[in-house]
Write a structure and sequence with these properties.
It is found in: Cytoplasmic vesicle, Secretory vesicle, Synaptic vesicle membrane. With 331 residues, this protein is mainly beta. It is built from four helices and 18 strands.
Length: 331
Amino acid sequence: ALIAIAVAAGLLLILFLICIIKCCCCKKKHKKKEKLNLQNINGATTASLVCSSHCPSSMKVGVKQAADLKAMDSGGTSDPYVIVYLTSDMRKKYESKVYRKTLNPVFNETFTFQIPQAEMSESTLVMQIYDFNRFAKHDIIGEVRLPLGDFDLQHVIEQWQELTAAITLTQERLGEICFSLRYIPSTSKLTVVILEAKKLKRMDSSGLSDPFVKVQLILNKKKWKKKKTGVKKSTLSPYFNEAFTFDVPFNQIQNIDLVISVWDHDKVTKNQQIGKVFLGCRATGNQLRHWSDMLANPRRPIAQWHNLQPVEEVDNALGLKSHFKLPLPGK
């Protein structure tokens, strides 16, 4: 599919420069150059690796130029600009200037990221090229993703990379959450125990998050009941072990959607959702299996891990009709 995109759009390349400098008490090293030939579907490109020296937890990314970009405007050109960020801290994003009416922009802009050395191997550098549009949503032309663990971070790297189709939100890793479900038909009690989460997306500038979990019931596509856990400070692997019990009549259990959402608490600004999942008879995959196991094993707690999904994706699947709270059944 990517090959077809490349053929249709032309040769999509972006030349970038990564300079990662470490801080140490050693002497300045003599620069050493080496050449590395890379092959891709459109032929050969060349990358230069240059040894560098000192400076702590700092990474410089130089976006130099792009060539043969896809024409996004009716006039056969584009107005490209670049957004650069690390997956370890997606709140921190840099944006280049907009270059008008060109398919071969020369950016020559440098951006500096502060990232703990221990996190570099797990983070990915993302460079996305957009077409600016004054009166409509900006269209993404393509992107480059570079897992930092694949590079020798003691070197300066300069090379061409082919743009690929942008990864959608559904492919971003948001984290995982573990919780148990138990339903007792005779008492109409649904118990949800939020156990723990791991590998949550970093939401704060410190590289951590302050997560808490909301548990919400939706009845007939309308918001009904909700509860939430306490906030766990500065962690990406919180342990909650908090139980919530809801009254759900047996004749309503088939019409219920259970929504589990993980949030990042912020004292200054608005709390932000990290990701969510929903379970019920309308769910699919692991979520439907977990719900079915609960119904098939009344009185027995069923625990399972779930991958968090993008907020927009879950909300669209739920297709909520309104935002008001329904009265309890029978009232």
